[in-house]
Design a protein that fits this description.
The chain is built from eleven helices and twelve strands. It is of the alpha/beta class. Strand 11 (263-265) and strand 12 (270-272) form a beta hairpin.
Length: 355
């Protein structure tokens, strides 16, 4: 039996609360399933790491993560870090860059029992995570934006064939296991070279998957289509910034930020990381919604299970997911979703439902 080595970073703000709730559920689920071995190691990240090691993402954390199968990352409150870290990538950007976690995979699925702006959504956004318009990660060295004078700023977008090919292939592979439909999102009518290349390379990769139906939209039109007819979409593949924006939109459409899960993956490792931030306005009140981190952890286990062809791990992920969704369906929710559960009591409800 393989032992899966997982890192855990609580991070800042509500991270302490939502990651703890997630670990409580994960450990309880795992205790009921002795066919999977998980070895969890807590690693420093965030404000406490600055106090203890002088950096929000100490080298020793990266070194240890390099030997893990995957990890769970709580949110960081990088806006509260001392000014000397302003010029550096935040911990999440640094981990995505350092480990070349090129695919940011963000599902948006309607959940029974949750009030939402749309029904019947079930899509997954494959967001390219390493280049595009994000200047903190789109250069080999240095950053991709400059101030020429105090009144002139230049920001660069970077689009490369290998990076587009690998995110497109990940999206088409995923489509083959779902409804065999991929939507490419770009802005090739205006950003002709950069997002034009994105569109063209995705269409080239599409030829390897003749069973998959393909369409494409400009990003502005896509925002409107998502609001109007979200249930028509299955897999969406897009560049970094468009994916960041569209996934906040789809997350909100199906119920809110606190629910939105994600993983960031390369070919060998993955990082579970909810879409939301450290929520400084509600920290320490035991009201933060842990579902985003819980479902991100489910995605991580499922991803590892499929990668290692380990049905026991896939079953563990499914068991956790079923219990979380069943709690929500019964109306057991934290205040952001209109309920009265605390972070801790929600975890207890989920644990009781694991059986
Ligand atoms: P935020 O996501 O932390 O909060 C936005 C709003 O959503 C707040 O009102 C908050 O209370 C609410 N919210 C967020 N998560 C919630 C949850 N799980 N349960 C209930 N309510 C929740 O965004 P922000 O306020 O713009 O950023 C705060 C800090 O988080 C900043 O330092 C920012 O840089 C950082 N941030 C980190 C990540 C990350 O770690 N991946 C992502 C976004 C923002």
């Amino acid at each position: 039996m393989k032992t899966y080595q997982l890192g855990v970073m609580y991070g800042d703000g509500i991270g302490e609360e939502v990651v703890k709730a997630t670990l409580d559920v994960l450990k309880a689920a795992n205790q009921m399933n002795d066919l999977v071995k998980l070895d969890l190691e807590v690693l420093p990240m965030g404000l406490k790491a600055i106090d203890e090691f002088g950096h929000p993402l100490p080298e020793q954390t990266k070194e240890k993560l390099s030997k893990k199968d995957g990890w769970i990352m709580g949110p960081h409150d990088s806006a509260a870090y001392p000014d000397r870290f302003n010029e550096e990538r935040n911990p999440s950007g640094e981990l995505r860059h350092h480990f070349d976690l090129f695919a940011n995979i963000r599902p948006a699925k309607s959940v029974k029992g949750i009030k939402s702006l749309v029904n019947d959504a079930d899509l997954v956004i494959y967001r390219e995570n390493t280049e595009g318009y994000y200047p903190d990660r789109n250069m080999y060295s240095g950053v991709g934006e400059w101030m020429v004078t105090p009144d002139v700023a230049l920001s660069t977008g970077v689009f490369t064939r290998p990076a587009i090919e690998r995110i497109a292939r990940a999206a088409f592979e995923a489509a083959m296991t779902r409804h065999k439909q991929v939507t490419i999102v770009h802005k090739a009518n205006v950003i002709r070279l950069g997002t034009g290349l994105f569109k063209e390379v995705c269409l080239e990769v599409a030829k390897e998957y003749p069973e998959v139906k393909v369409n494409d939209f400009h990003v502005d039109a896509m925002a409107a289509h998502l609001v109007k007819r979200i249930s028509d979409f299955d897999i969406i593949v897009t560049e970094n910034m468009f994916g960041d924006i569209l996934s906040d939109l789809t997350g909100e459409l199906v119920g809110g930020l606190g629910l939105s899960p994600a993983i960031n993956a390369n070919h060998t490792q993955a990082m579970a990381q909810a879409v939301h931030g450290s929520a400084p306005d509600i920290v320490g009140q035991d009201i933060a919604n842990p579902v985003g981190v819980m479902l991100s952890t489910v995605m991580l286990l499922d991803w590892l299970g499929k990668k290692h062809q380990d049905n026991h791990l896939i079953d563990l992920a499914k068991k956790m997911e079923d219990a979380i969704l069943s709690a929500l369906e019964k109306g057991k929710t934290t205040p952001d979703l209109g309920g009265t559960e605390s972070t801790e009591s929600f975890a207890k409800v989920v644990i009781n439902l694991l059986n």
